[in-house]
Amino acid sequence: MQQYFVEGRAEKLITITDKDTVKHMFSVMRLAEGDEVVLVFEDGIKHLARVVSSSQHQLEMVQELRDDVELPVQVTIASGFPKGDKLDLITQKVTELGAYAIWAFPADWSVVRWDGKKLAKKEEKLTKIALGAAEQSKRNLVPQVSLFEKEEDFIAQLSHFDKIFVAYEETAKAGELSTLARELSTVVTDQKILFIFGPEGGISPKEIETFEQAGGIQVGLGPRILRTETAPFYALSSISYALELTKR
Amino acid sequence: MQQYFVEGRAEKLITITDKDTVKHMFSVMRLAEGDEVVLVFEDGIKHLARVVSSSQHQLEMVQELRDDVELPVQVTIASGFPKGDKLDLITQKVTELGAYAIWAFPADWSVVRWDGKKLAKKEEKLTKIALGAAEQSKRNLVPQVSLFEKEEDFIAQLSHFDKIFVAYEETAKAGELSTLARELSTVVTDQKILFIFGPEGGISPKEIETFEQAGGIQVGLGPRILRTETAPFYALSSISYALELTKR
């Protein structure tokens, strides 16, 4: 069943005001009176809702759904600005794979430089991609997308996390394969995890030092060299496997 | 260091004959006498090699490398033909993530129909993508790409596998989250695993029945709905995490 994210809280009768949502519901999907959809409100709770008036864009709540598909921990993915449209792919896929937030920052070895208007436009595009992917994968929330114009602003956020993982190619090369598994066995529900990925050129030694000082733990993601956009897929899949599929 | 796959076996002195490899080595990378690269032969063993003559495309072996980055099991990914260029993305990413072979077949609910010339052209393109991704991720082998023109030819292959997993959305919805983890705890080194994924429309009940009769086990890949191209990333990442990153 089609799912939509709606601002505010669930009430008996609600009117859809967001233009894109209205367009998708009543022009694209041509919802008519009596049709049912799932609405997810800002509290992350899903409701089965029924169209009362397609011309007034009104729906009534039928029942609250217990469906909660969020990871037991909040995982923020932070990528050093990668080339081209790779952030589009990263945003879509990590949303499907359960990311809580999607951040990107100008890393020392990022080739692209986005700022001002371009950055805002990019962030807007990625936010739309995240919304679409969150609806499609039936998430309870839309990952928040933030592109940092300055790396120092990203670094200032590090203290807000319970655990920081740094995907480090050199670590993988050196055969450091079990740190991630060991660390994941210690996380507890609702912890805030930050997973940092470098751009194509990798993470600079200076950055590694900064992340380590903030408590960052270098982890390898298996023995194969993963592209910058593939590493976050591995990370989130592993976290899901470890925390959702494995009996602990 | 740049890595190339070379046909045949390692000998003291070898001449590169494959046109694309010659072009990349001596035109793109402009390798000169004394430059070193890694060559991987058909046995999967990597060798450090040094250019002896760039005009003759000759290299000498310096030493055998112990580097083996292959998964401990052979995982074949089999996707029902998905729409558009999704197989390109699947091929690149599952090669990075360690797939042994990449198959696709016309599933009951595949929208696209590829046959004859078009299928052969597609297979050729995907084979090149797999080669590029295998070099980039420093694999010991290039995954074999096979596109089946008839689903029955794919089904005829099922008996060659030790274990068959079927990614089944309905299973995930019903909260079946631990089968994959339980089954992965029983696999042993070098086993042949087949992981089947449906196209966008999913796997038909008839197909599910066929796969089950062949020993296929339905597994959920976490509670979120993954797109057809994302599910294989989750599957391979989980297999790597379970078999390479977790102490067993």
TrEMBL record, chains A, B:
Its EC number(s): 2.1.1.193
InterPro entries: Alpha/beta_knot_MTases, PUA-like_sf, RsmE, RsmE_MTase_dom, RsmE_PUA-like, tRNA_m1G_MTases_N
Domain Ribosomal RNA small subunit methyltransferase E PUA-like: from-to ranges: 17-58
Reactions accelerated catalytically: uridine(1498) in 16S rRNA + S-adenosyl-L-methionine = N(3)-methyluridine(1498) in 16S rRNA + S-adenosyl-L-homocysteine + H(+)
GO molecular function, one term: methyltransferase activity
UniProt record similarity statement: Belongs to the RNA methyltransferase RsmE family.
Protein purpose: Specifically methylates the N3 position of the uracil ring of uridine 1498 (m3U1498) in 16S rRNA. Acts on the fully assembled 30S ribosomal subunit.
The protein's name in its UniProt record: Ribosomal RNA small subunit methyltransferase E
